[in-house]
Amino acid sequence: MNPSHTRLAFVMQLKPGFEAQYQQRHDELWPKLAQTLKAHGAHNYSIFLHPDTLQLFGYVEVESQARWQTIANTEVCQRWWSFMAELMEVNDDSSPQSTPLTDMFYLA
């Protein structure tokens, strides 16, 4: 990991029965969304599924938390949220309900 990057982790909730669709949509991630994430300083972005609880665990390294947060204001991000809203628990603006996780341990 680059020492100037901040590690962020969060949990989201997938709705039952949408595991395959969630995987397929991310396998076919829109190139413009990938470019936007990278342009906003996101690196090593991963999402993992807990098969019993359907919790989604996200991990991303960002160059700046402020820059990361501005992704939400992009047109492509808002379209992605609408595209994904039927599959997961979301807020009124279609953004995923997300709980940040506290960093408890890191071994470099």
From TrEMBL:
GO terms for molecular function: L-rhamnose mutarotase activity. GO terms for cellular component: cytoplasm. The active site is at H26 (proton donor). GO terms for biological process: rhamnose catabolic process. Its EC number is 5.1.3.32. InterPro entries: Dimeric_a/b-barrel (IPR011008), L-rhamnose_mutarotase (IPR013448), Rham/fucose_mutarotase (IPR008000). It is found in: Cytoplasm. Its main location: cytoplasm. It catalyses: alpha-L-rhamnose = beta-L-rhamnose. It comes from the Bacteria. Keywords: Carbohydrate metabolism, Cytoplasm, Isomerase, Rhamnose metabolism. Substrate binds at Y22, Y45, W80, W81. Pathway: Carbohydrate metabolism; L-rhamnose metabolism. It is an enzyme of class 5 (isomerase). Belongs to the rhamnose mutarotase family. Homodimer. NCBIfam families: YiiL_rotase. Involved in the anomeric conversion of L-rhamnose. This is L-rhamnose mutarotase. The gene is rhaM.
